[in-house]
Amino acid sequence: xxxxxxxxxxxxTYDLREADRIIVMMTExxxxxxxxxxxxxxxxxxxxxxxxxxxxxxxxxxxxxxxxTVSQVELVTNAKNLYSDLDRLTMGLAMLEAVDQLGMENEPxxxxxxxxxxxxxxxxxxxxxxxxxxxxxxxxxxxxxxxHVDSCVGCxxxxxxxxxxxxFRGGAQCRECRSGATVSVEAIGIVQNIVGGQLNLALSLxxxxxxxxxxxxATKCMEHHLERRLKSxxxxxxxxx
Length: 241
Ligand SMILES: [Zn+2]
Prior knowledge:
This protein has about 240 residues and is α+β, with helices and mostly antiparallel strands. The protein folds into two domains: about 80 residues, CATH 2.40.50.140; about 110 residues, no CATH class. It is about 40% helix and about 25% strand. It has seven helices and eight strands. It has a five-stranded mixed barrel. The longest helix is centred in the C-terminal third of the chain and has 29 residues. Bound molecules: zinc ion.
């Protein structure tokens, strides 16, 4: 048995046996980790409340032959304020889902951990409905498939000529090249701010038709990326090939 300490955000949990629970988390240094928390479903458990999805914890894990075990948990930040607000909770859980799908078990992905911790902080500090969209768009940049919005993805026409966005081509398009859905100049501008390092500007915007457009666009881009990734993993693991 070896022990290691790490920081982690709890992604999801599921029940095991009578009183135990499996905790799936994104750690800072060990990638996605799955470990058993023994007895957490008993009323007397000290761990239980600290190991809810969205909790940010400092954790001591002992590695076993089959399953790792949670030995100690300290809260870094609890997610109480997120659980009391349905919009924030929904966005937070969507962030966990994306990170869960992008993370690999026991393969360090420090950027996923860091981006998730950062985004949960935006979520705690901002009213903006764009927090989730911003997280998706930045995550896609980190994955190497960021939305191309500075110029037309087809011909390179400048930003002021962009009128559409094609999710399959991963970018904005001019009138000549358009194959994707119509997108407003305002929405393109917001996406440019988010991926171009002006996040605070984007998060300070009041809800509008353009912010809703960006939210929908970011979700579509993330879904497209996850789907394509899932397919490539399926092909890779298929025994016929
Ligand atoms: Zn073009």
